[in-house]
Write the structure tokens for this entry.
Amino acid sequence: MATRIGILSGGGDCAGINAAIKWVVKTALEAHRMGMTFEIVGIREGWRGLVEEDFMPGEINKQYVTPLDQDVVRTWDRYGGTMLATSRTNPFDPKNDRSQKLLQNLKALSIDCLVAIGGEDTLGVAYKLHTMGVRVIGIPKTIDKDLHGTDYTLGFESAVQVITEEIDRLRTTAGSHKRIFIVETMGRNTGWLALEGGEASGAYIILIPEYDFEVSSVNELLLEGVKRGNRYEIVVVAEGAKPKGGGQVTRHGEKDSFGHATLGGIGDFLAGEVELGTGIETRCVVLSHLQRGGAPCAFDRRMGRYFGIAAVDLIAKGEFGKMVSYLNGEVTAVPIETVLGRIKMLDVRTQYDTERYNGRRTIFV
């Protein structure tokens, strides 16, 4: 009898997810070479697909669950987003706990093991299921690159590429009009996207959540550039960055089912402060979901492939409750439990120049 693998993607979409799904499917369906037989079902819309309906034993509901084979996923790795769709549904939401319904549906669908592609929230649900006896494997995915236990998460490099390309476009209009542009990136409570996107695009100033900035210092640096004859400047600010003595800016007071507020608005705040302090016309561009969109870069396609293959290897070995990861240049695996409950932050001491508000200026010193 074939072992049935269920696979889903949860949380925000990003490039690289489809590559991971494709290679879970291809690797599993070619496992007959190792004397193993698998079948794959894709679960649509993340955890929502397992709690919205009551499944009957043996039923494959085409709205939320669909069989996957090599013909179906053959071209998926070249596309961004997630072909299985996603959601931020939390089946363990204290206000609406549907975890028992999830367990019942997994049993009705005869799913023997589950591959969950996501960040800390999705993997947190996966770990809770693991403690309840469900056989799970995690694949790390978040453009924020803030997960412990891995040096890389799917979607990051593609998002950095978007930041770089959009800033390249902004330079033409910024120079034409002699303006300062504030570019707000995603990243939640970490500055990986802002820093590496800012470094790649040659931004003049980069502001990150790990180090609070002074508006007066930002203005001094910008005026210093004007004195040198610069016609324009680009300032990259992470959505979670904040001025000294102030708090993070949020779009509204509501929180999602995992308890997260929606950050955003620091770019508009800073643009106003910069224009007031420098007298130079300043505009804000919020990249927002552009960073999630588009085709995956070559690195995300390769990492999706490697992570998908590694996930099936773990299933074949019976090593459940683990997340595949990329550490020190090698694909490996770590217990999901060790990934949760903490954020991987930038090391300001070694990765950030606190005087210039930019990336590091030394490598070996």
